Amino acid sequence: NSWAEFVFSNVLLGSHLVRWGSRPPQEVLTIQAYGKSVIERTNMLVRNMSLNGVLRT
């Protein structure tokens, strides 16, 4: 788990957890899938920046 995944998962959890209780299961799954794709894209971006020497991890 990268730091970006940790941060983004916590942000996504914080923003959606409060509303999950009143959401239908299908919508919850959609949110989780969206969050997962955001995390994956972010990790890819972070890795690319790391490879290019822009970001030192």
Automatic annotation (TrEMBL):
<protein>
    <submittedName>
        <fullName>Uncharacterized protein</fullName>
    </submittedName>
</protein>
